[in-house]
Amino acid sequence: MSKRWLAIVLFLLAAAPLAGTPASAQDKATSTNDILRAKLQADKKLIVAANMDLSDAEAKGFWPVYDAYQAELQKANDRILTLITSYATVYRSESTDGDQATKLIDERIAIDQAEVERDRAFVPKLVAVLPPRKVIRYMQIEAKVRAVVRYELADRIPLIQ
Fold first, then answer.
1. N or C: lower Cβ tally within 10 Å for the chain?
2. Residue pair 5/44 in contact by the 8 Å Cβ criterion
3. Hey, where are the domains in the chain?
4. 2 CB neighbour count, 10 Å cutoff
5. What gap in Å lies between CA 31 and CA 40, rounded to an integer?
6. Where does residue 98 rank: exposed (0-12), middle (13-18), buried (19+ CB within 10 A)?
């Protein structure tokens, strides 16, 4: 994966609105983030294309599966953002009860389980249109992107006291 893609992912994270931003500023940030999201999706697609070396026949089958996978990833990213917002609320509060903590833990585990289930569901779809080595390559690209994003999130999200 190129350093350019890493820079793009880091830029997206830096540009994301923080929880607790005033509504008017949040509306403007949301609009900007929608533009950034579309740009990043296009850039990611270029990175994937450059690293997959797809034949015309493979590309014809791959890109619809890729688009469906990206749509599922966006749902997962929205869910993660909601969880981060919940973390921020708990972080800012003076106390956290057991129910709040349990809900946060359960949601984090559910998100991880959903990621595995999503990947399991898409692998057969990918295998139907790509040779196994290219399926592995694509899954590696996705894993690298998610690892960079998770690293950045982990670095930016303070531990709840």
1. C
2. yes
3. 3-156
4. 11
5. 14
6. exposed
